[in-house]
Amino acid sequence: MPADTLLTAVRAHLNLAPTHKVLMEPIQKGASGRTIIRIKPEDHGSFIGVHYTLERSDNANFLPVGQFLDSAGLNVPQVLYDNIGRHVAIVEDLGDTDLTSLKDEPYEVREPYYRSAFEQLDKLLYVRPPKDFDLQPKFDAEMYQWEQDYFIEHFVETHLGKDGAALREDPILASLRTRLGATSPHMVHRDYQSQNLLLKDGECYVIDFQGMRMGRQEYDLASLLYDPYMNHTAEERVKMLKLWEEVTEEMPIEPILKDCAAQRLMQALGAFANLGHNQDNEWYLEQIPSAVTALKEVIADTPLEDTLGQYL
Residue 49 is part of which domain span? Predict the structure, then answer.
């Protein structure tokens, strides 16, 4: 059992006696093949225990990617103990407060944390992994096609109950994935949104980075700007882009940013529909309207509006 394995791991890490009292609080057990538990040994601080299977190939990347990002100076939880053979790790407990928790706060309250999030993303821009570093497959035209097919299968066909065959052959979507897949110059988190940014001591800490791969930095930036969980207004996105310019001393190329935003929002809609309908998690279905609104805004007055508009 994962809990038993994690209990053994924390006893080994702290050299605890078998009778030492340890409280364990489940945090997450999902389709990702990971079990995450908060572990509270008596007379010690709390830890986060992670038990993973190889059901998904990216789970094996959690430890090496985390250690690499830490060495590169990014804010990530410290790995305190790991046993690769047993697929367990004990990591620093950063608490439960993520950026999503500030959704209803004024922009001025959120801004310092977005500055921190942008600073982490800017650091990632200059990180170059060793040639033998085992990342997930890079973002290329095939990977973008997988995301589009995911959107068609779960959002268009399952959620809307419509025929998605025409979309699979649509030249506008093919052109989008070809443009985006033409180059993959930077390390990309791939799910850089508010739930994966924990707040501690006035800064953001990045989690769930096991899916990192090479791609376009604008994909991660678009994930923050058009985050359905936060549902930013257009005015707030303008402020966030100015903040991005302050941090990085440059602005993204708008057509590339919009292309990445459209692609990312299609992926998010596919995920929300899949989690909502196939894993019976209605909370994700509640996120669909904000994602649809954002996607409509992104594709307005572009060829993608003709392709996707009827499904939105």
Answer: 2-92
